[in-house]
Amino acid sequence: MSQINISSPFCSIPIKVGIVGTGYAAKARAETLKGDEQALLVTVAGHTPETTEAFSQTFQVQSTSSWQQLVEREDLDLVIISTINRDHGAIARAALENDKHIIVEYPLSLDPTEAESLISLAAQKNKLLHVEHIELLGGLHNTIKQFLSNIGKVFYARYVTINSKQPAPQKWTYRSSLFGFPFVGALSRLHRFTDLFGQVDTINCQSQFWYTDVDLYKACLCTAQLRFNNDVIGEVVYGKGETFWQSENIFSLYGEKGTLIFTPQQGQLLQGEKIQTIEVPARRGLFAKDTKMVIEHLLAGTPLYVTPEASLYTLKVADSTRRASDL
């Protein structure tokens, strides 16, 4: 990961924080920071003056007119980037050049080459660059890891997430230029696989979009097949929008000694006629947990749960799915 000197605390208490973004993740992090005596939320910069002002009023912090001005503020130690995917790389670079530590929601950049250069810049600057992957902290992923050995050698895994929206929202997550290719923008779908099964050997991908404008679609469907170096075949299906009439969220893992099938609520271990129900902890408070871990890391050097290099590797896999879908 991006190494920083742990011989002494990276920041003094309180860590002074600025947030770029006013959406769900930004609000969850702001709530956590306001309840942490070790951190001080100083300012926020949003997409529109109205949402920025509403956010600043809710959390009683200053509003900054642009992210460019926010990263240049000398009274900040840490910048949290929780805005549209397209701008992650540019904001991260500007923040690092202004000697700030960084939390950024995945993906670090839509361009793997830029992401790699940002990791190098963070190392040169001796600053933390933490790419959020809260899917690794959640109950589903950790329960899968807990029970994986029960099914012996895994040979096939399939992860389907389809989100029906009637009608599809006209928001940035349905714009290719702002969200990125679906497996890039929704990087966690692939990151679950690379975390579980390691290096990828071959990649195939198909995609389909239902466009209503040049850069706006009402639905998308992407399917990718990955063959890992350990011979596991992984299939990932991601779809969203109004073309779908039913949502689905199922993670299935097939091993030589059994099968695991998970929904977000519960799982099953199937071994012949034996069926074991598995409880999956609720997905709550993960942005708060991620934020607290970063604060502790900056103050005490405690380890984090993911490295930027791991996120970069998955980003390269995701970009390969994009290129494969164009063939």
Describe the structure.
The structure is a single chain. The protein is an alpha/beta fold. The chain has 11 helices and 14 strands. The protein has helices at residues 24-34, 49-59, 67-72, 88-97, 112-125, 139-147, 176-179, 182-185, 188-197, 286-300, 308-325; strands at 15-20, 39-45, 62-63, 78-81, 101-105, 129-132, 154-164, 200-211, 217-228, 233-241, 248-255, 258-262, 266-271, 274-279. The strands form 2 sheets. Strands 8-9-10-7-11-12-13-14 form an 8-stranded mixed sheet, with helices on one face. Strands 3-2-1-4-5-6 form a 6-stranded parallel sheet, sandwiched between helices. Helix 1 crosses helix 10 (286-300) and helix 9 packs across helix 11. The longest helix has 18 residues, at 308-325. It starts with 14 loop residues before the first strand and ends with a helix. The model is unreliable at 1-8 (pLDDT under 50).
Features:
single chain, 327 residues, alpha/beta, eight-stranded mixed sheet, 11 helices, globular, disordered N terminus
Mean pLDDT: 95
From the alpha carbons, calculate the radius of gyration and give it in angstroms.
20 Å
How many individual helices?
Answer: 11
- DSSP, total strands: 14
**Distance from first to last alpha carbon:** 33 Å
Strand content: 25-35%
Bin the helical content: 25-40%
User: Major sheet: order of its strands?
Assistant: 8-9-10-7-11-12-13-14
Which overall shape is indicated by the principal axes computed on the Cα atoms?
Answer: globular
Determine the structural class based on helices, strands and strand pairing: alpha/beta
- List segments where confidence is low: pLDDT < 50 over at least 5 consecutive residues: 1-8
- The sequence of SSEs as H and E is EHEHEHEHEHEHEHHHEEEEEEEHH
Largest sheet: 8 strands, mixed
* Assembly level: single chain
